[in-house]
């Protein structure tokens, strides 16, 4: 009984959310703002990757960031300290972002000025995969210390993403992470996903990733 | 409106869950079975820690394991391969375990024979912290590569746990993880929490952790 009740509410909410996400994408097309939703487990390196990405793209694009967290403002502070427009969204216990929360976050940014906005979703490989945030593209980070079996365990996340960043590639020597096996598992779930090996810390692979992201953004905002 | 509807259902379900958890603990006291709920982010090393823990305790206690995952049976296979009674619970999309799911899992184990059962919860630092599983003690793993800021971001998880295992301590040299700062953040949330530094891979710290766990189990099952 409980499960049935829960699922009905969830379906209602997800249908409402889908409509809100579509409306948000129309609004972003109008303001010519590309929105990227970045997801991962806790501690995979989302904030550091956003900083490295913004550093690389900021000469060509006006960048903004929405930092989502259950609590705390540490990430938005880190981003703002680098001179990047940042909004902190505190979900107050919610384990994911939905389109209405993202729309609220975007109110804190000047969309007419910004070309690219990156959302740092809540650190979670489960719930964020179920909710369309209104983003134009979805990307996820899998960090090497988490292990190569994650596609087997969190398949939906790997299925909904356009790009996979394999971060902390500098930990590879210390670990038994099997890159080819991981790639094979991911490709089976999502043959079209773009895979980038990066280290947000050392900068390795950031050029390839940001080249792809820049092309996707340019196409959406009509600069292609 | 949506949020209000969701929260009401959630409160109903959580009250029902609390009652189910209390009933489960009474049943465990009767069968003299100590139940540990082990939580962490994806890839923090739950399965490897369970294997190292069972290896150390199995001469003194009959051990069983409940492996929870959205999908896949890889973890239960790893545990069973070591000759430990294991049940795989597939949550089919649910991001956490509740007491009724754990009760279902326990049906697959012989409680009259078992002294200690360890639940590997879904890899997630958010939702599992909100649901009483019926376990006698809660423990969590924070792995070094995830970073020392996790207590700031997922405070509820650190608050509900009796023990914190800081795993992958062998990665410390490669990382800027600040152990004293992390301990200070955790103690502020939960002054009574037991903190163990371990490496499930090398075995470091497993003796101290299992000594504590063994004492907790002995007290509950009346062997103290």
Summarize the structure.
2 copies of one chain form a homodimer. Chain A is an alpha/beta fold. Chain A has helices at 2-31, 46-57, 74-80, 99-106, 150-153, 155-160, 179-189, 206-220; strands spanning 34-40, 63-69, 85-90, 116-120, 137-143, 163-167, 194-197.
Tell me the number of strands of chain A: 7
Strand pairing plus helix content of chain A: what structural class? alpha/beta
Distance between the termini of chain A: 52 Å
- Multimeric organization: homodimer
Q: Percent helix among the residues of chain A?
A: 40-55%
- Largest sheet: spatial strand order of chain A: 3-2-4-1-5-6-7
Q: How many DSSP H or I helices of chain A?
A: 8
Question: What can you see in these coordinates?
Answer:
The structure is a homodimer of 224-residue chains. Chain A has helices at 2-31, 46-57, 74-80, 99-106, 150-153, 155-160, 179-189, 206-220; strands spanning 34-40, 63-69, 85-90, 116-120, 137-143, 163-167, 194-197. The first copy, chain A, has 224 residues and is α/β, with parallel strands linked by helices. In chain A, helix 2 crosses helix 8. Chain A is globular, with a radius of gyration of 17 Å. The relative contact order of chain A is 0.17. Mean pLDDT of chain A is 92; it is low at 1-8. The interface between A and B is large, with 41 and 41 residues.
